[in-house]
Amino acid sequence: MNYRQPTTRKSMHATLVQDLGLQIVSGQLAPGQKLPSEASLCESYAISRPVFREAMRALTAKGLVEARPRVGTLVRPRHDWHMLDPDVLHWLMQATPQKDFFNTLSSVRWVIEPAAAALAATNASPEDVESIAEAYQRMEAARTHEERLQPDLDFHARIADATHNDLLAYLCNMLSMALRESVRYSNQRPNFNQLALPRHKAILTAIQNGDALGARHASLVQLEDARVALSKVLGQDPTS
User: Fold this and answer.
1) In 3-state terms, what secondary structure has residue 68?
2) Nearest in space to 101 (alpha carbons), one of 109, 92, 111, 110
3) Closest CA to 68 of 60, 210, 214
4) In the beta sheet, which residues pair with residue 138?
5) Is 75 helix (H, G, I), strand (E, B) or coil?
6) Quick one: 2 exposed, middle or buried, by C-beta within 10 A (0-12, 13-18, 19+)?
7) What is the pLDDT of residues 131-160, one digit of tens each?
8) Which residue range or ranges hold the HTH gntR-type domain (predicted)?
9) How many beta carbons lie within 10 A of that of residue 79, not counting itself?
10) Where does the pLDDT of residue 52 fall: very low under 50, low under 70, confident under 90, or very high at 90 and above?
């Protein structure tokens, strides 16, 4: 799936949420700006007032808008947006230049994944380690980057689960859609088996050995390798 393409939505309520959400996240509707009136949007989308209000409740729940008496519905400041909401994250991926979005995602991964690998090395049960190893074996057996995508995502998700830290696992899960898009690109390089597989194997080995420091270091090396791979696939200078 290409997350930079709009999702097909069936209901007019969902279409209104999609359209306004994307306009807000892309900056077409700026923070503090008033949304078009209820009457005009109901007419434009051929929807009833209850359907309109349901759409506004959805956008409010995502932190994007707020209703003010006698003023109308206003776009909230960017720092109030629920960035890990799946729809908001999806709109960010659509609205943000690809290089900028992946750079932002890489920065987040550098904060979270080495810590998760270190914690997994400390907390993983034998069953957790076996599950991570199984995902790695499927990566190793894959012959195309399409076949490799899901095992790669499973590898990282199972490391997060092996931390036995519910909040950390939740954060990783909420980022999984963006991670899928990033991995989908980075896995396209032709020398994946020679470079990326050993990086993942080093993380697995450190976790198997209960080596938290080694797992953290191996994760940092893998992330740098992924950053360089992504830059090359996207035709960018990896040193920039």
Assistant:
1) strand
2) 92
3) 60
4) none
5) strand
6) exposed
7) 999 999 999 999 888 899 999 999 999 999
8) 10-78
9) 8
10) very high
* Angle CA 148–149–150, to nearest 5: 100
Flag whether 38 is in a domain: yes
**Domain range enclosing 213:** 97-234
DSSP string, 163-210: TT-HHHHHHHHHTHHHHHHHHHHHTTSTTHHHHHHHHHHHHHHHHHTT
Looking at the fold, whether 116 and 144 belong to one and the same domain comes out as: yes
Same domain, 105 and 193: yes
Q: What is the CA radius of gyration of the chain?
A: 21
* Nearest partner of 59 among 27, 22, 90, 28, judged by Cα: 22
Q: Where are the beta strands (DSSP E) in the chain?
A: 65-68, 72-75
Q: What six digits make up the tokens of 136?
A: 């790695």
- Token output for 23: 């306009």
23: domain CATH number?
1.10.10.10
Give me the number of domains the chain comprises: 2
Picking from 21, 50, 80, the residue at the C-terminal end of a domain is 80
**What separation in angstroms does the CA of 155 have from each of 125, 142, 158, 239?**
15, 13, 5, 27
Q: How many helices and strands, by DSSP H and E, does the chain display?
A: 11, 2
Q: Report the CATH number at residue 186.
A: 1.20.120.530
Amino acid at 181: E
| Together in a domain, 71 and 130 | no
Last residue of a domain, one of 35, 53, 80: 80
Q: Specify the residue for token string 């992504």.
A: 230
The confidence score (pLDDT) of residue 188 equals 78
At residue 6, the pLDDT reads 45
Is residue 49 pLDDT above 80, yes or no? Answer: yes
